[in-house]
Automatic annotation (TrEMBL):
Listed name of the protein: NAD-dependent succinate-semialdehyde dehydrogenase
Keyword set, alphabetical order: NADP, Oxidoreductase
Record-linked InterPro entries: Ald_DH/histidinol_DH, Ald_DH_C, Ald_DH_N, Aldehyde_DH_dom, ALDH_GabD1-like, GABD/Sad-like
Gene3D superfamilies referenced in this protein's UniProt entry, alphabetically: Aldehyde Dehydrogenase, Chain A, domain 1, Aldehyde Dehydrogenase, Chain A, domain 2
Domain of life: Bacteria
Organism, as annotated: Geoalkalibacter halelectricus
Record domain Aldehyde dehydrogenase: where: 3-451
Family membership noted in the UniProt record: Belongs to the aldehyde dehydrogenase family.
Length: 454
């Protein structure tokens, strides 16, 4: 099977890559394991120097990497540059803070001395998605490598150029050979790789279906796994909120990365008192977004990454409309070359509709009318997902009180849900388990070792 890089703005094939044989995959895993035996003995200062150089490589080649993303998965070029900058930030963050985060911690016991140490596990397999093809990888790789692990990447099969470019970042930064490698394999080899005794743990960002398969195999092999899966984030707007600010932020959040983001706001839960006024502002903000060629500096919303994904999204929209949702904007693929879907608003969304229950992975907003804050919380939690959420109100104290009742891994009051190297990131329920980033993320893939001395 070949790995194909297809331009979603045109539907044209960019390049084909031969999938590795199982033998080549095994040879690479053996080489990465061998590299770990030296890498684990390096100091935090040595690792940090390498990671800081990786940040420099990213910044120096920002335009090139953004162009690769634009051509391969349709990310607007300006968003691609921002993504590369964020990758450089996470490299610098862990280069600066990892030593303190993983320092030995003294513990009381009946020994002369006892403490908790944080040792590297070994080779970690990262199964990563196409939607943030650089950021998803670096938010795993930066802490994992700083902890003394090595990494192998099985990237999404539609972004092979991104996968190879990421491997080259570490090569240019001067990391020892085979500390981080890309596996040019399809999904059919993932279970075999997880079964390999050289793999010590697995992290996956992707769909719920993929997460279940990876978690099942990792569980069978008794290997730790971290999952960051889908989301259907609630965006609650209370009657006392700043209508204009919340509506503008709602449009930005719903359509970031052309709507293809796990933590994008997807269900807009609006108190009846301001529903009509808020919806008008939201419609204006969504309609103003510039849709077009991702290589154009003015483009804010590019194509969907694959044709099948666009068609699946459109099917969810059509079914929701057939069940009574109101179409206020968009609603049909654009009649142009490529996989473009316009900013779309479905109003009066009710239970029983795909737009109410399912994750819509594209620029489609589900707007739900509620009578009060209590109903808003009930609706927000009436989902299988639990990744993020936000509450909008002029009373920040009330916002915090309501935030505590939202069943999600992250809740923002009067702000757009986003990932930040300084804050833990991850979900609950069908959005997965485990955490990335911050102090918590770097400790996911270490051996928390008790040391007792007499």
């Amino acid at each position: 099977m070949a790995l194909e890089s297809i331009n979603p703005a045109t539907g044209e094939l960019l390049e084909k890559f031969d999938e590795w044989s199982p033998g080549k995959t095994q040879e690479t895993l053996a080489a990465v394991d061998l590299a770990w035996r030296d890498w684990r003995r390096t100091s935090f200062a040595e690792r940090a120097a390498n990671l800081r150089r990786a940040a420099q490589v990213l910044r120096q080649n920002k335009d090139e990497y953004a162009r690769i993303m634009a051509l391969e998965m349709g990310k607007p070029i300006t968003s691609g540059r921002a993504e590369v900058d964020k990758c450089a930030w996470v490299c610098d963050y862990y280069a600066e803070n990892a030593a303190a985060m993983l320092a030995d911690e003294p513990a009381q016991s009946d020994g002369s001395r006892s403490y908790v140490a944080f040792r590297p596990l070994g080779m970690i397999l990262a199964v990563m998605p196409w939607n943030f093809p650089f950021w998803q990888v670096f938010r795993f790789a930066a802490p994992a490598l700083m902890a003394g692990n090595t990494g192998v990447l099985k990237h999404s099969s539609n972004v092979p150029r991104c996968a190879l470019a990421i491997e080259d970042v570490f090569r240019q930064a001067g990391f020892p050979e085979n500390v981080f490698r890309t596996l040019m394999i399809g999904a059919n080899q993932v279970e075999t790789v997880i079964e390999n005794e050289l793999i010590k743990a697995v992290t996956l960002t992707g769909s719920e279906a993929a997460g279940r398969k990876v978690a099942a195999k990792a569980g069978e092999m008794l290997k730790k796994v971290v999952l960051e899966l889908g989301g259907s984030d609630p965006f609650i707007v209370l009657a006392d909120a700043d209508v204009e600010d919340s509506a503008e932020t709602a449009a930005k959040s719903r359509c970031i990365n052309s709507g293809q983001s796990c933590i994008a706001a997807k269900r807009f839960i609006i108190e009846a008192e301001i529903y009509d006024r808020w919806l008008e502002k939201f419609k204006d903000a969504m309609a103003a977004l510039v849709v077009g060629d991702p290589l154009n500096e003015q483009t804010q919303l590019g194509p969907q990454a694959r044709e099948d994904l666009m068609l699946e999204l459109h099917g969810q929209v059509e079914t929701s409309l057939a069940k009574g949702a109101e179409l206020l904007l968009g609603g049909k693929p654009l009649k142009r070359k490529g996989y473009f879907y316009p900013p779309t608003i479905l109003a009066e969304v009710k239970p029983g509709m795909p737009a109410y229950h399912e994750e819509l992975f594209g620029p489609v907003a589900s707007v739900i009318r509620v009578q009060n804050a209590e109903e808003a919380i009930e609706v927000a939690n009436a989902t299988l997902f639990g990744l993020g959420g936000s509450v909008w109100t002029r009373d920040s104290s009330k916002g915090e009180t309501l935030a505590a009742r939202i069943e999600a891994g992250a809740v923002f009051v009067n702000g757009l849900v986003k990932s930040d190297p300084r804050l833990p990131f991850g979900g609950i329920k069908n959005s997965g388990f485990g955490r990335e980033l911050s102090y918590f993320g770097i400790r996911q893939f270490v051996n928390i070792q008790t040391v007792w001395v007499k």
